[in-house]
Design brief:
The chain contains six helices and six strands. The chain is of the alpha+beta class.
Length: 134
C-alpha cells in the first residue's frame, strides 16, 4: 500500500484526536470529549497535520508497522483498526459510499461533540469521560 493509499483510509472522524485516559488497574481506555488543540472540531481534521508531531510530541503517526501496537487506543470504527483486525469498512466510510461527509451524517465523528484541550485542566479530564466514541 502506498503512503497515499494508507492516508486515504482515514475517515475524518477525529476520534483519534480525543484525549484518552487509561485505567492503570484494568488497562481500559476511556475517551473524553476533549480534543487535541490542533483539531479543527468542525472539519474533524488536524490544522497542522504536517507539523503535528513537532507541536504535539505524543501525537502518534499510524503506520502499517505500528497499527497492531496502538490499535487499542483507536476507536473501534477506525478503518486502520478494522483492517488490522481483518474486518470490513462500515457502509458510511467514504471509500465504501463515496461521500466524505457520510461520517458526519452518520454521527460517527466528533463534530459538534467536543472541545479543544486549550484551557482544560488535566485534573478535570476524568469528569469529561464520554461513551459515544466507542
Amino acid at each position: 500500500m502506498t503512503l497515499q493509499e494508507w492516508e486515504s483510509l482515514c475517515d475524518g472522524c477525529g476520534k483519534c484526536c480525543l484525549v484518552k485516559l487509561e485505567d492503570e488497574d484494568t488497562g481500559k481506555i476511556h475517551y473524553t470529549d476533549v480534543a487535541c488543540a490542533l483539531l479543527d472540531t468542525g472539519a474533524c481534521r488536524c490544522t497542522d497535520y504536517g507539523n503535528r508531531q513537532q507541536r504535539i510530541p505524543d501525537c502518534v503517526t499510524l503506520t502499517p508497522e505500528n497499527i497492531n501496537r496502538v490499535k487499542n487506543w483507536m476507536p473501534s470504527s477506525c478503518a486502520y483498526r478494522l483492517l488490522a483486525d481483518g474486518k470490513p469498512l462500515p457502509d458510511w466510510h467514504h471509500l465504501e459510499c463515496g461521500d466524505t461527509q457520510a461520517v458526519h451524517h452518520a454521527r460517527k465523528s466528533v463534530r459538534g461533540r467536543c472541545v479543544t484541550e486549550t484551557g482544560i485542566e488535566i485534573d478535570d479530564l476524568p469528569a469529561r469521560i464520554v461513551r459515544w466514541p466507542r
